[in-house]
Structure formats: structure tokens, C-alpha cells
Amino acid sequence: MALHNQQGFVAQRNSGGHIRVYVAMRNDEDWHRQAGLDLTDTAAVRDAILDRFTGWSDRMLGFITDTDTGYVNRPLYALPVPHTWTHAPGLTLLGDAAHLMSPFSGMGANLAMLDGADLAQALIDNATIDEAVTAYERVLLPRSVEAAEGAAGAIDDAFSPDGAAQVLAHMTQHH
């Protein structure tokens, strides 16, 4: 990560020895429409993003200029924290439906898999589907709230005006 003034770059290691770098900006979801940009106009989008990153080092700006792909707007969505629901007999949620959060916690996929395992175990351990769902939700809901609070805090820290210092403080405190 490289963060400053509510924007930055986030790199992710992918398979095949590739690294994907995301340009991250805290702004309205339809920022490109507000700026009169067509996301298929690669040059115009590149120029608009470069303008937002005025003052950044040329090495960092290379993540914007030296791409072999176009630009894709990928807004981040999250459910409100806490996100809970009133029990409905025989019906429940798991994965992103239960706890959609920003990827800044790094827990979304892990929680979805844990949800599935916990629900399966509850179905094995309980006599009825409704008893299983109730048992599963007793585990799921507190865990989801804690993870969502962490994700919301992490993204707020990362994209605060002093995001780099906030992330460093968080990492130092928790690792």
C-alpha cells in the first residue's frame, strides 16, 4: 500500500507471479460520471486519475500510466455495522449476504467458508433445520459484527487524511 490524502495504491499478489495494483480513491461511486468521463476512454480516465495524484512520485504514477489494461471502476460496498436480523424459521444468510464488508479486513472469503462449515455442522448437530439455523446464527452474528467493525475501521483508517500513519499504527499494534 501507498496511501496519502484519501487515495493511494493497493497491490495484491495474484497467481502466476503477477501483481495487480489498484488505484484507490475515496470519492463518490459515480465520480467518473460527475467528471464527464467515459470509462472506456482509457486516455481520458488516465489523465483524470493522474490529475488526482498530482505531486506523487513518478515511480508511483507508473502504476497509472504503465498499465496494459483499461480502467475498471470497482466501488467497495459494505453492509451497515452492526448488520443483524430477526430470526426467520428455517432461513438464514451466509457469506457476503450476511456480512458484506470492504476487503480491508482480509476476512470476507474466510468468513464465508467458515459460515458454510458452521452451518453444515449445525445441521448435523441439531434435530431440526430451525434449531440448526438458530444455533448457527448464535455463532455467526457476533463474529460478523466484530469482523465488519474491523473492516470498517481499517478502510476509514486507510483513507483518512493521514492514512499511511493510521495503517502503520494499526499494523504495529496488531502484529
TrEMBL record:
Pfam families named among the record's database cross-references: FAD_binding_3
SUPFAM superfamilies: FAD/NAD(P)-binding domain
Domain FAD-binding: 91-125
Entry keyword set: FAD, Flavoprotein, Monooxygenase, Oxidoreductase
Native source organism of the sequence: Streptomyces nojiriensis
Name used for this protein in its record: FAD-binding domain-containing protein
